[in-house]
Input
Amino acid sequence: MKEVRVWDLAVRCFHWSQVLLLGGLWWTAEEGMMEWHQVLAYSLVSLLLARLVWAFAGSETARFSHFVQSPLRALKHWNQPKKGLGHKGLSSYMVLALMALVLLQFLSGLMTTDDVFVEGPLYSQVPSGLSALAGWWHHNGFNLLLALVVVHVLAALWHLLKRDGTVGAMFSGKQQATAEQPKEKPFWLYVVLVLLFLAAFVGWQGPLFQQTLF
Output
Protein backbone atom coordinates (compact mmCIF):
# COMPACT_ATOMS: atom_id res chain seq x y z
CA MET A 1 0.00 0.00 0.00
CA LYS A 2 1.16 3.52 -0.74
CA GLU A 3 -0.29 7.02 -0.68
CA VAL A 4 -1.91 7.88 -4.01
CA ARG A 5 -3.61 11.12 -5.03
CA VAL A 6 -7.06 9.81 -5.94
CA TRP A 7 -8.84 13.16 -6.52
CA ASP A 8 -7.15 16.13 -8.08
CA LEU A 9 -7.53 19.73 -6.92
CA ALA A 10 -10.15 20.50 -9.58
CA VAL A 11 -12.52 17.79 -8.32
CA ARG A 12 -12.03 18.83 -4.70
CA CYS A 13 -12.45 22.52 -5.56
CA PHE A 14 -15.72 21.79 -7.36
CA HIS A 15 -16.99 19.59 -4.54
CA TRP A 16 -16.46 22.05 -1.69
CA SER A 17 -17.38 25.13 -3.73
CA GLN A 18 -20.64 23.39 -4.58
CA VAL A 19 -21.34 22.82 -0.88
CA LEU A 20 -20.77 26.49 -0.05
CA LEU A 21 -22.69 27.83 -3.03
CA LEU A 22 -25.71 25.57 -2.47
CA GLY A 23 -25.83 26.83 1.09
CA GLY A 24 -25.62 30.39 -0.19
CA LEU A 25 -28.35 29.78 -2.75
CA TRP A 26 -30.68 28.42 -0.09
CA TRP A 27 -29.96 31.36 2.23
CA THR A 28 -30.39 34.08 -0.42
CA ALA A 29 -33.68 32.52 -1.56
CA GLU A 30 -34.99 32.38 2.01
CA GLU A 31 -33.98 36.00 2.65
CA GLY A 32 -35.32 37.29 -0.67
CA MET A 33 -31.87 38.38 -1.86
CA MET A 34 -32.66 37.43 -5.42
CA GLU A 35 -29.91 39.41 -7.16
CA TRP A 36 -27.30 37.62 -5.07
CA HIS A 37 -29.19 34.37 -5.61
CA GLN A 38 -28.75 34.80 -9.36
CA VAL A 39 -25.05 35.69 -9.09
CA LEU A 40 -24.39 32.61 -6.96
CA ALA A 41 -26.34 30.48 -9.45
CA TYR A 42 -24.20 31.67 -12.36
CA SER A 43 -21.08 31.03 -10.29
CA LEU A 44 -22.17 27.49 -9.42
CA VAL A 45 -23.13 26.57 -12.96
CA SER A 46 -19.78 27.92 -14.22
CA LEU A 47 -18.06 25.51 -11.85
CA LEU A 48 -20.40 22.72 -12.94
CA LEU A 49 -19.94 23.24 -16.68
CA ALA A 50 -16.18 23.31 -16.19
CA ARG A 51 -16.48 20.07 -14.18
CA LEU A 52 -18.44 18.47 -17.03
CA VAL A 53 -15.67 19.37 -19.45
CA TRP A 54 -13.20 17.98 -16.90
CA ALA A 55 -15.22 14.75 -16.86
CA PHE A 56 -14.22 14.13 -20.48
CA ALA A 57 -10.86 15.89 -20.83
CA GLY A 58 -9.55 16.27 -17.28
CA SER A 59 -7.53 14.10 -14.91
CA GLU A 60 -7.90 10.33 -15.15
CA THR A 61 -9.97 9.73 -12.00
CA ALA A 62 -12.19 12.75 -12.75
CA ARG A 63 -13.44 11.33 -16.05
CA PHE A 64 -16.82 9.66 -16.39
CA SER A 65 -15.13 6.85 -18.29
CA HIS A 66 -13.11 6.05 -15.17
CA PHE A 67 -15.85 5.79 -12.55
CA VAL A 68 -19.28 5.40 -14.19
CA GLN A 69 -20.31 1.74 -14.48
CA SER A 70 -23.34 0.21 -16.13
CA PRO A 71 -26.42 0.11 -13.84
CA LEU A 72 -26.39 -3.70 -13.82
CA ARG A 73 -22.74 -3.88 -12.80
CA ALA A 74 -23.20 -1.19 -10.15
CA LEU A 75 -26.11 -3.07 -8.56
CA LYS A 76 -24.31 -6.39 -8.79
CA HIS A 77 -21.27 -5.15 -6.91
CA TRP A 78 -22.85 -2.54 -4.61
CA ASN A 79 -22.02 -4.42 -1.38
CA GLN A 80 -18.61 -5.73 -2.44
CA PRO A 81 -15.29 -4.11 -1.53
CA LYS A 82 -14.46 -1.30 -3.94
CA LYS A 83 -11.66 -1.94 -6.41
CA GLY A 84 -9.64 0.82 -8.00
CA LEU A 85 -9.55 4.55 -7.28
CA GLY A 86 -12.29 7.14 -7.03
CA HIS A 87 -16.06 6.80 -7.15
CA LYS A 88 -17.42 3.42 -8.19
CA GLY A 89 -20.76 1.66 -8.39
CA LEU A 90 -23.81 3.39 -6.98
CA SER A 91 -21.74 6.34 -5.71
CA SER A 92 -21.00 7.26 -9.32
CA TYR A 93 -24.73 7.58 -9.98
CA MET A 94 -25.08 9.86 -6.97
CA VAL A 95 -22.47 12.12 -8.56
CA LEU A 96 -24.39 12.14 -11.85
CA ALA A 97 -27.73 12.75 -10.11
CA LEU A 98 -26.40 15.71 -8.12
CA MET A 99 -24.88 17.27 -11.22
CA ALA A 100 -28.07 16.78 -13.21
CA LEU A 101 -30.27 18.28 -10.49
CA VAL A 102 -28.04 21.33 -10.09
CA LEU A 103 -28.15 21.89 -13.84
CA LEU A 104 -31.94 21.49 -13.91
CA GLN A 105 -32.26 23.95 -11.02
CA PHE A 106 -30.27 26.49 -13.00
CA LEU A 107 -32.21 25.99 -16.23
CA SER A 108 -35.57 26.18 -14.47
CA GLY A 109 -34.46 29.32 -12.65
CA LEU A 110 -33.80 31.03 -15.97
CA MET A 111 -37.47 30.59 -16.87
CA THR A 112 -39.19 31.45 -13.61
CA THR A 113 -40.04 34.51 -11.50
CA ASP A 114 -40.48 35.34 -7.83
CA ASP A 115 -43.72 37.18 -8.75
CA VAL A 116 -42.41 40.34 -7.05
CA PHE A 117 -39.19 41.84 -8.37
CA VAL A 118 -37.09 39.33 -10.29
CA GLU A 119 -37.70 37.43 -13.50
CA GLY A 120 -35.32 34.92 -15.01
CA PRO A 121 -33.79 36.11 -18.30
CA LEU A 122 -35.79 33.52 -20.27
CA TYR A 123 -39.08 34.01 -18.41
CA SER A 124 -40.67 36.28 -21.03
CA GLN A 125 -39.33 34.22 -23.93
CA VAL A 126 -40.98 30.88 -23.13
CA PRO A 127 -44.67 29.87 -23.07
CA SER A 128 -46.50 30.57 -19.81
CA GLY A 129 -47.12 26.86 -19.31
CA LEU A 130 -43.43 26.11 -19.51
CA SER A 131 -42.53 28.95 -17.14
CA ALA A 132 -45.14 27.68 -14.67
CA LEU A 133 -43.68 24.18 -14.89
CA ALA A 134 -40.18 25.61 -14.45
CA GLY A 135 -41.32 27.50 -11.35
CA TRP A 136 -42.87 24.37 -9.88
CA TRP A 137 -39.70 22.38 -10.55
CA HIS A 138 -37.40 25.12 -9.22
CA HIS A 139 -39.13 24.87 -5.85
CA ASN A 140 -39.69 21.11 -5.65
CA GLY A 141 -36.50 20.14 -7.44
CA PHE A 142 -34.48 21.91 -4.76
CA ASN A 143 -36.21 19.79 -2.12
CA LEU A 144 -35.22 16.68 -4.08
CA LEU A 145 -31.67 18.02 -4.32
CA LEU A 146 -31.58 18.51 -0.54
CA ALA A 147 -32.84 14.95 -0.04
CA LEU A 148 -29.98 13.59 -2.17
CA VAL A 149 -27.53 15.75 -0.24
CA VAL A 150 -28.77 14.16 2.99
CA VAL A 151 -28.26 10.69 1.50
CA HIS A 152 -24.80 11.77 0.35
CA VAL A 153 -23.90 12.97 3.86
CA LEU A 154 -25.18 9.71 5.38
CA ALA A 155 -23.02 7.77 2.93
CA ALA A 156 -20.03 9.90 3.97
CA LEU A 157 -20.73 9.09 7.62
CA TRP A 158 -20.85 5.39 6.72
CA HIS A 159 -17.42 5.69 5.10
CA LEU A 160 -16.14 7.41 8.24
CA LEU A 161 -17.37 4.50 10.35
CA LYS A 162 -15.64 2.07 7.99
CA ARG A 163 -12.45 4.17 8.19
CA ASP A 164 -11.65 3.51 4.56
CA GLY A 165 -10.16 6.97 3.97
CA THR A 166 -12.77 8.04 1.42
CA VAL A 167 -13.88 11.18 3.27
CA GLY A 168 -10.35 12.23 4.16
CA ALA A 169 -9.37 11.92 0.52
CA MET A 170 -11.93 14.56 -0.43
CA PHE A 171 -9.93 16.99 1.70
CA SER A 172 -6.36 15.92 0.98
CA GLY A 173 -6.92 14.18 -2.34
CA LYS A 174 -4.80 11.27 -1.12
CA GLN A 175 -5.66 7.72 -0.10
CA GLN A 176 -3.81 4.50 0.67
CA ALA A 177 -3.98 2.19 -2.35
CA THR A 178 -2.04 -0.37 -4.34
CA ALA A 179 -2.77 1.31 -7.68
CA GLU A 180 -0.31 3.49 -9.55
CA GLN A 181 -0.63 7.25 -9.43
CA PRO A 182 -3.30 8.23 -12.02
CA LYS A 183 -2.51 10.86 -14.64
CA GLU A 184 -3.54 14.41 -13.78
CA LYS A 185 -4.15 17.61 -15.70
CA PRO A 186 -2.94 20.90 -14.21
CA PHE A 187 -5.42 22.70 -11.97
CA TRP A 188 -5.00 26.01 -13.80
CA LEU A 189 -6.76 24.50 -16.82
CA TYR A 190 -9.88 23.95 -14.72
CA VAL A 191 -9.64 27.51 -13.39
CA VAL A 192 -9.46 28.83 -16.96
CA LEU A 193 -12.57 26.82 -17.88
CA VAL A 194 -14.49 28.24 -14.90
CA LEU A 195 -13.46 31.79 -15.77
CA LEU A 196 -14.44 31.34 -19.42
CA PHE A 197 -17.93 30.13 -18.51
CA LEU A 198 -18.29 32.87 -15.89
CA ALA A 199 -17.15 35.50 -18.39
CA ALA A 200 -19.80 34.28 -20.83
CA PHE A 201 -22.49 34.71 -18.17
CA VAL A 202 -21.18 38.15 -17.21
CA GLY A 203 -21.33 39.13 -20.87
CA TRP A 204 -24.91 37.88 -21.07
CA GLN A 205 -26.12 39.32 -17.76
CA GLY A 206 -23.68 42.19 -17.26
CA PRO A 207 -26.13 44.62 -15.58
CA LEU A 208 -26.99 42.03 -12.93
CA PHE A 209 -23.34 41.55 -11.96
CA GLN A 210 -22.66 45.30 -11.99
CA GLN A 211 -25.69 46.03 -9.83
CA THR A 212 -24.96 43.24 -7.37
CA LEU A 213 -21.18 43.26 -7.10
CA PHE A 214 -20.35 46.89 -7.72
Q: What stands out?
A: The first strand starts at residue 2 and ends at 5. The mean pLDDT is 87. Residues 11 and 62 are 7 Å apart (CA to CA).
